[in-house]
Design a protein that fits this description.
Blueprint: E1 4-7, H1 17-22, E2 30-35, H2 47-56, E3 61-66, H3 70-79, E4 84-88, H4 95-104, E5 108-113, E6 131-135, H5 151-163, E7 169-173, H6 181-187, E8 191-194, H7 196-199, H8 204-219
Parallel strand pairs: 1-8, 2-3, 3-4, 4-5, 5-6, 6-7, 7-8
Helix pairs in contact: 3-4, 5-6, 6-8
This protein binds 5-O-phosphono-D-xylulose (5SP) and fe (ii) ion.
5-O-phosphono-D-xylulose binds near residues 64, 175 and 193.
Length: about 220
């Protein structure tokens, strides 16, 4: 299980996104939080910014769509060149069709669950996804406190993934920092989104190295 770190540009300076992408050369992904004022009470960025970022950096984009009607919009993020497109189970009306469409367009397909959404009903969809994202805060804002209550679900998700061959990546998102990443890694997460903990640090490169080392320590 290789540890991957995906810094969230939600915590970066939106006026200097290309520079902020370049500031994290040791990131595995750039996490791009798309919010629409409908699925979540916040508005961030959309397709034009993703298209621009795609040209501005070689780091693959990990697009987390916190939007209503992802069935309609998600394929366009794959077409725009995102390496990974994650839709929320709570918002999708045809998740299997949409996940298949994302994959057919060459991107990895992700399924996200809010903190209070159980993972068990989605076991049969694991064959349709490349990554399961478990929110460890309520979606909508960066800088929130990590919800420990989600950790048992991370453990159960790791068990389910193991039963299905262990191919699916398990991402945690929200409040992940030097103080919480070890608990997430011990519970079975392998892809870690970190916004404030990376872009709020005086040295984002060192912050990523420290997060990666802490996660590796926890699983070794
Ligand atoms: O999807 C979200 C919030 O809805 C996250 O990706 C946040 O952007 C993570 O930020 P931090 O909690 O790490 O500051
Ligand atoms: Fe996110």
């Amino acid at each position: 299980m290789a540890v991957q770190i995906s810094p969230s540009i939600l915590a970066a300076d939106f006026a200097r996104l290309a520079d902020e992408a370049a500031a994290v050369p040791n990131a595995d992904w750039l996490h791009v939080d798309v919010m629409d004022y409908h699925f979540v009470p916040n508005l961030t960025l959309g397709l034009p910014v993703v298209e621009a970022l795609r040209k501005a950096t070689d780091t693959p984009l990990d697009c987390h769509l916190m939007i209503a009607d992802p069935d309609r919009w998600a394929p366009q993020y794959a077409e725009a060149g995102a390496g990974s497109v994650t839709i929320h189970a709570e918002a999708a009306k045809a998740p299997i069709r949409t996940l298949r469409e994302i994959r057919s367009l060459g991107a990895r397909a992700g399924l996200a669950l809010n903190p209070a959404t159980a993972v068990e009903p989605y076991e049969d969809l694991l064959g349709e996804v490349d990554m399961l994202l478990l929110m460890t805060v309520e979606p909508g804002f960066g800088g929130q406190k990590f919800l420990d209550v989600v950790l048992p679900k991370v453990r159960r998700a790791r068990e389910l993934i193991g039963r299905h061959g262990g191919r699916v990546w398990l991402q945690v998102d929200g409040g992940v920092d030097a103080g919480t990443i070890e608990r997430c890694a011990e519970a079975g997460a392998d892809v870690f989104v970190a916004g404030s903990a990376v872009y709020g640090a005086s040295d984002p490169v060192a912050a990523i190295d420290a997060l990666r080392a802490a996660a590796n320590r926890a699983i070794s």
